[in-house]
Write a structure and sequence with these properties.
Blueprint lengths: L2 E6 L8 E6 L8 E9 L2 H8 L13 E9 L18 E8 L19 E2 L18 E4 L3 E5 L6 H4 L5 H12 L6 E5 L3 H12 L4 E5 L6 H6 L4 E3 L1 H11 L5 E6 L4 H9 L1 E9 L13 H7 L2 E4 L5 H13 L10 E6 L3 H10 L4 E5 L1
Parallel strand pairs: 9-10, 9-12, 10-11, 12-13, 13-14, 15-16
Antiparallel strand pairs: 1-2, 3-4, 3-7, 3-16, 4-5, 5-6, 5-8
Helix pairs in contact: 3-4, 3-9
C-alpha cells in the first residue's frame, strides 16, 4: 500500500514526529486531497506553545490548499459556488465539517455542530491520520464545504482564506452594512489587516485601526485604515473621529482582554461589537450591565464561520488582486521535513503566515 508523510504533534515541547501512513481510499461522502500548501495559523502557534490544548497525537494545520486526488462514493461534485469539481482541481475547504441536521446546524450555527469535525484539531486514529494540513494528504470528511480556486489566487494567499479571511468575512457579516460607518479594528495581525481591507471595500466612512505595536501603522494604512492608534490614544482618537459619539462598529481580533474591553467601551449608543480574537483564555473583563441597557449596545461573540463566509472570503481575495498588499503577509516557505524550523520562524515573525509545502 502506498504511504505518505505526516508531521505528528505529540505535545508542547516535543519535536514534531515525521511518520509515514498508508494513503487512505476515500469513503462515502469523502474526498482525498493532495496538499500543496498549508500556513501556520495563530491557533497552531498557541497549541505549539502550550497555551491551548488539543487531543494528541494529532496533525495540526487547517489553513490548507491542495488538489483533488480521488472522490469517494457520494462525495460532492459541486463546490460551494456551484462549480463542478473534478480530479486535479485546486481547492480549499471549510476548516470544519458539520452534519447539517443537528440542533445548531438547523439554527444557522454549523460551526457549532453537535458532530463537528475540525481539521488540525482532532487526534489521529488508524485510517484517519491525514486530518490536518501538515502532511502530504488530507482526507476530507462528509459535510466539508469545498471551494475551487482560480489560477490568479496563489496557494500562499488562498491558504489563510479558510481561517483568517473567512473569520473576518463572518465578522463583517455579523456587523451589518459597513457603508458609511465608523469602524474600529482592534489588532493589526493578519485578521485585523483583512478587516481593514474588507471595511474599506464595503465603503466604511472611517476605519480606525489599533495595535500595541506602533510600527504596524504603515501596514494598516496600506490595508485601508484611515486612522491608527495604540491603546493609550484609542479612546481620544475614536471620540475625535466620531464627534464624541463613539464607533458604530468595533471588531476585536487581537485576543487581549484589554482589547475586548476597548471594543465595547468605545461604541456609540446603539453600536455593535464583534468579539472574535479571544479564542484562547485571556482573562476576564469588567462589564457594567447598566452600560448595556442605557447605551443599547450589541455584543456578538464569533468563533469560526459558516460555509458561505468562505465563499465571501475567497471572492474578496479574487476581487482585490493588487489593491491591498496581501502578498506582503506571506512569510517564509518551509518543506514539511523542516516543520520544527517553520514553527520557530513563525514565532519570531508575528503578523505574517509561514507556509509549509510537502
Amino acid at each position: 500500500m502506498q504511504k505518505a508523510l505526516a508531521a505528528v504533534f505529540t505535545g508542547h515541547g516535543d519535536p514534531f514526529r515525521l511518520e509515514e501512513f498508508p494513503i487512505p481510499a476515500p469513503g462515502t461522502g469523502e474526498t482525498l486531497v493532495k496538499i500543496t500548501c498549508s500556513t501556520i495559523c495563530g491557533s497552531d502557534m498557541h497549541t505549539w506553545h502550550g497555551r491551548r490544548q488539543e487531543p494528541t497525537p494529532c496533525v495540526l494545520g487547517h489553513e490548507i490548499v491542495g488538489t483533488i486526488a480521488a472522490f469517494g462514493p457520494g462525495s460532492p461534485r459541486l463546490d460551494l459556488r456551484g462549480e463542478p469539481l473534478t480530479e486535479g482541481d485546486r481547492i480549499t475547504w471549510t476548516l470544519a465539517a458539520s452534519c447539517g441536521e443537528c440542533f445548531f446546524c438547523k439554527r444557522g450555527l454549523p460551526q457549532k455542530c453537535e458532530h463537528l469535525f475540525k481539521y488540525g484539531h482532532s487526534a489521529i486514529a488508524p485510517g484517519r491520520e491525514f486530518s490536518g494540513g501538515f502532511a502530504e494528504y488530507c482526507l476530507l470528511t462528509a459535510g466539508t464545504g469545498i471551494i475551487k480556486l482560480r489560477a490568479e489566487l496563489s496557494d500562499a494567499l488562498a491558504a489563510p482564506a479558510n481561517c483568517a479571511v473567512a473569520t473576518v468575512a463572518a465578522a463583517t457579516r455579523i456587523s451589518g452594512n459597513l457603508e458609511g460607518q465608523i469602524v474600529s479594528v482592534l489588532g493589526c495581525g493578519v485578521l485585523g489587516l483583512a478587516a481593514c481591507a474588507m471595511a474599506s471595500e464595503q465603503g466604511a466612512a472611517a476605519i480606525i485601526a489599533c495595535d500595541v505595536d506602533p510600527f504596524r501603522e504603515a501596514t494598516a494604512r496600506r490595508f485601508g485604515a484611515t486612522h491608527f492608534h495604540t491603546p493609550d490614544t484609542l479612546r481620544e482618537g475614536i471620540a475625535t473621529t466620531s464627534h464624541g459619539r463613539g464607533a458604530d462598529i468595533s471588531i476585536e481580533l487581537s485576543g487581549a482582554n484589554t482589547a475586548v474591553s476597548a471594543a465595547i467601551d468605545n461604541l456609540r449608543i446603539g453600536g455593535t461589537a464583534v468579539i472574535a480574537g479571544a479564542a484562547a483564555p485571556c482573562g476576564c473583563i469588567s462589564l457594567d450591565p447598566q452600560m448595556l441597557v442605557r447605551r443599547m449596545v450589541s455584543i456578538h461573540g464569533l468563533h469560526n464561520y459558516a460555509p458561505n463566509d468562505l465563499v465571501s472570503a475567497v471572492g474578496f481575495l479574487e476581487q482585490i488582486q493588487g489593491k491591498f498588499p496581501f502578498s506582503d503577509l506571506a512569510g517564509e516557505n518551509f518543506a514539511l521535513t523542516r516543520i520544527d524550523e517553520a514553527f520557530s520562524s513563525s514565532g519570531k515573525r508575528p503578523g505574517v503566515r509561514t507556509a509549509i509545502t510537502p
